[in-house]
UniProtKB/TrEMBL annotation:
Gene3D superfamilies: Anticodon-binding domain, Bira Bifunctional Protein, Domain 2. One of its GO terms (cellular component) is cytoplasm. This is Histidine--tRNA ligase. Residues 33-386 form the Aminoacyl-transfer RNA synthetases class-II family profile domain. SUPFAM superfamilies: Class II aaRS ABD-related, Class II aaRS and biotin synthetases. One of its GO terms (biological process) is histidyl-tRNA aminoacylation. The gene is hisS. It catalyses: tRNA(His) + L-histidine + ATP = L-histidyl-tRNA(His) + AMP + diphosphate + H(+). Belongs to the class-II aminoacyl-tRNA synthetase family. It is found in: Cytoplasm. GO terms for molecular function: ATP binding; histidine-tRNA ligase activity. PANTHER family: HISTIDINE--TRNA LIGASE (PTHR11476:SF7), HISTIDYL-TRNA SYNTHETASE (PTHR11476).
């Protein structure tokens, strides 16, 4: 018997070189930082939650609107004319006519552009809701993504604070619809009130913009730091438990006393009512409070002088939806979940396009954060979508027969598919398990001649398998497998689905 011929060293070297080259040229599958893939279970839960929100918005008379994910950068208000490209914060690129375009960073700026562009034909007030992904060109981190979903509702063209009160009530009804009764509060303040406080301590005017921003940020930390923490930030600064020092606003003692008086007494502060902006803000909040009380929402919507939002954006009432239940943060500390939605009045946004003030108010839900909160409470609606019924392909020359079975199941409203791979029965059964199928339909040549099929209940079969140890016993018993006439396939599959509480229409 002749021995094996020695390998050709040249050929072997060539094959090794080609293998290395192919591997070097192969693309690496990788997800960009700050983005995430969402699979079927997550998407179904999200869609169910969005539908509940949408139902509330529709009940209030709001209509859907969808704007593109890309806008001219200057329409978003993010363009810096002294640079060659837009500033950080948005993803931008140049069109073929050298105009800058950007992915939207929120849903409100595109709404303002749409209203301005279609102003004459739209009914005023114009009430709309929108949901979709927005994009931030920011450094990603834990729970901080570059693409995330928002769900907004806005009323454009209504100067009355009745529109603001309605948004607050709608926000409360939305939280109730999601099963969060008693675990949230809608907190309401007014930018005019905050402007009045700043005026009362001598911080009005552009020359005090930086100090004013420091003061407002300190007020915004009231819930987390308490009165003493805010007082320190209004003065020289505050050192936290880790030893880190945050520089304060360095206000005079008299100014600190006025601001602390505002936080302790709220709208009753005499210095506040003595300013024009403050007096207007107090009056508007009184109107909102009266409407809230008359509508029966006083237990869920509260006036809160510490709410600070959109320091250079909002022009009147501001509000946020805060979840009040406690959770454990990433450091293992007990903390409140915090805000999942917020908004306010922005009478100057549409004016950027029209040159005249157009009153507008609205709020935005952070869908990802809301879903995380619902998940922490176990309130996410688990959609009970069964895996498809899989019709196995026993004889490849009979695919038309199997396709007819699948079509009959689908026509009856049952999720079904014919196996389209190239494997045998064992692999097909494994495929059905991975798909989460409740049952499979089997028809070989013998069954086809007799006009019957085998329907195997995979869920019941898995339970039976726990009590059967012997392979021969398994083959003899064929647990949870029944033989039925072809005409009874639909009824049999429906019965299996119903047995397991699945949709067996």
């Amino acid at each position: 018997m002749p021995g094996r011929q020695p390998a050709d060293p040249v050929l072997s070297s060539f094959k090794n070189t080609m293998a290395k080259t192919d591997k070097a040229d192969r693309l690496k599958a990788r997800l960009p930082r700050g983005l995430q893939d969402l699979e079927s279970d997550s998407l179904r839960v999200t869609h169910a939650t969005l539908q509940k929100i949408r139902a509330v918005f529709e009940r209030y008379g709001f209509d859907p609107l969808e704007t593109p994910a890309i806008e001219y950068t200057d329409a978003l208000g993010k363009f810096l004319p002294d640079q060659d490209r837009p500033n950080e914060g948005v993803f931008s690129f140049q069109d073929d006519d050298e105009q800058w375009l950007s992915l939207r960073y929120d849903l409100t700026a595109p709404l303002a552009r749409f209203v301005a562009e279609n102003f004459d034909r739209l009914p005023k007030p114009y009430r709309s809701y929108r949901n979709g992904y927005v994009f931030r060109n920011e450094k990603p981190g834990p729970g901080r993504f570059r693409q995330f979903m928002q769900f907004d509702a806005d009323t454009v063209g209504a100067p009355s604070v009745g529109a603001d009160a309605e948004i607050c009530m709608m926000a409360a009804d939305t939280m109730d619809a999601l099963g969060l009764q008693g675990q949230y509060v809608v907190r309401v303040n007014n930018r005019k009130v905050l402007d009045g406080v700043m005026e009362a301590v001598g911080l009005a005017g552009d020359e005090h913009a930086a100090t004013r921003l420091t003061v407002l940020r300190a007020i915004d930390k009231l819930d987390r730091l308490g009165l003493d923490g805010v007082r320190a930030l209004l003065g020289e600064g505050r050192r936290d438990e880790s030893g880190d020092f945050t520089k304060g606003a360095a206000l005079e003692a008299e100014s600190v006393a006025v601001i602390m008086g505002y936080l302790e007494t709220g709208l009753e502060l005499p210095e506040l009512r003595g300013t024009v902006a403050g007096a207007e803000g107090v009056a508007e909040l009184a109107q909102i409070e009266a409407l809230i009380e008359a509508s029966g929402y006083s237990d869920r919507v509260k006036i809160d002088p510490s709410v600070v939002r959109g320091l250079e954006y909002y022009t009147g009432p501001v509000y946020e939806v805060e979840l009040t239940f406690e959770t454990v943060n990433e450091r293992g500390e007990t903390a409140r979940f915090g805000s999942v939605a917020g908004g306010g009045r922005y009478d100057g946004l549409v004016a950027r396009f029209r040159g005249e003030k157009v009153p507008a108010t609205g709020f935005s839900i952070g869908v990802s954060r809301l879903l995380a909160a619902l998940g922490a409470l176990g309130r996410l609606e688990q959609t009970n979508v069964p895996g498809p019924v899989v019709v196995l392909v026993m004889d490849k020359d009979q695919t038309a027969v199997y396709q007819r079975i699948v079509s009959e199941l689908r026509a009856a409203g049952i999720r079904a598919e014919m196996y389209l791979g190239g494997s045998g029965m064992k692999a097909q059964m494994k495929y059905a398990d991975r798909r989460g199928s409740s049952c499979v339909v089997i028809q070989g040549g013998d069954e086809r001649e007799r006009g019957v099929v085998q329907v195997k209940d995979l869920i019941e079969g898995a339970k039976a398998a726990e009590t059967i140890a012997d392979h021969e016993e398994w083959r003899e018993a064929r647990p949870a497998q029944v033989e039925v006439p072809v005409t009874e396939i639909v009824a049999t599959v429906r019965g299996i689905l119903a047995r397991h509480g699945l949709d067996g229409r």
